[in-house]
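thread: overnight batch results

M.L. [08:02]
morning all. the overnight job finished for the chain we discussed friday. pasting input first so we're all looking at the same thing
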Amino acid sequence: MSRVEVECKMEEGPLGKYIIVPKGLYNVVPDTTTISGVDPKGEHTIYRGYTIADIGEHASFYEAAHLFLYGQLPCEDELREIKRKIDTYRGQVPEKIFDALKLVPKTHPMYYGSYGVALLGQYYAPEWRFDDDFLYEHALRLIASLPVIFTAGWHLAHDGTVIRPDPNLDHAKDVLRMIIGRMPSDLEARAFESSLVLYMDHGFNASTFTVRVIASTLSDMYSAVAGGIGALKGPLHGGANEKAMQMLLEAKEQAEKAGKPLEEYIEEYILQKLARKEKIMGFGHRVYKIHDPRTDVAAKFIKQLPEGEYWLKVLKKAEEVMWREKKLPANIDFYTAVLYYQLGIPIPMYTPIFAMGRIVGWTSHYIEQVKNNKIIRPTEKYVGPTGLKYAPIEERCKK
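M.L. [08:03]
and the structure it wrote out:
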């Protein structure tokens, strides 16, 4: 029997028969989607019919965004149009949003994203509609604006400035420029762009399901995305790349003290952590049990960036140890952690970058949900006390 067959069962409840499913909805399919998911053989994650690795390596941000939103890769005129809209909208974030971000206490940049997106919705869509043109325009505006909000919040908190977007640059290059404060090379921009595409979607992950739950109430897209950002902020969903890089830097520091190369010391470091029952960040995945194909794409860019060969040796050795000891493969977060470090990106910005890619999936899922909607409202099984009676405070608080 599968785990689901063992844990799923029928019970009688006050409203009829209940289906009791595994905690955390493990292996539960609440709906269908044509956007992304695991192929029937369980070997790849699919983006609208294409493997995630294929699109991640070859497609531009604009091409991938068009694929997600409209269901197909764009022709030349469609590519020009989606590029024009994303680049234009990136430069149209209202000045009052920046003023509002200045009032937020210095904090993790994920807070700036959820706060800024909620405000943005009040500027552009105080009255929400569900016609196609309206939905797609606001999806593109969110895709374009979210990176500007994240980068503005980061720089305001750290140096009190805002690096303005440049609509004349390609989206990925401009976003990376705003993050690191200098003009990136074409290679750096392409490596960064590829990572955004790799992060665009991954089935009904926690943040995407959050977006769909909020969408199912017929709330607006901005509120749904703000909820998705909140879910992604959790360390069990987003944040793994931040923790992975912090771990690698700690190992690097210890290796230097021990006078050993990191690619050799990393095994000792991991074994010590495992002996202490500590979690090794960047390993294991709900879908990929043997190999995460997204890591192959990221590795190609890591190799071309500064100290690429060095970092790949470290990553491969860590993978070897974790597979031998725990049968856990590295996931994309382990590789993008190094990729972003090579690009000079501050570690607290790693999870916001995840969101800058995932916003494409979130908005696509929002549209798919509302177009064939039924409110997502599971039934609970109450296991608390019953039959209690109210007592006045002087009676219930007697010693």
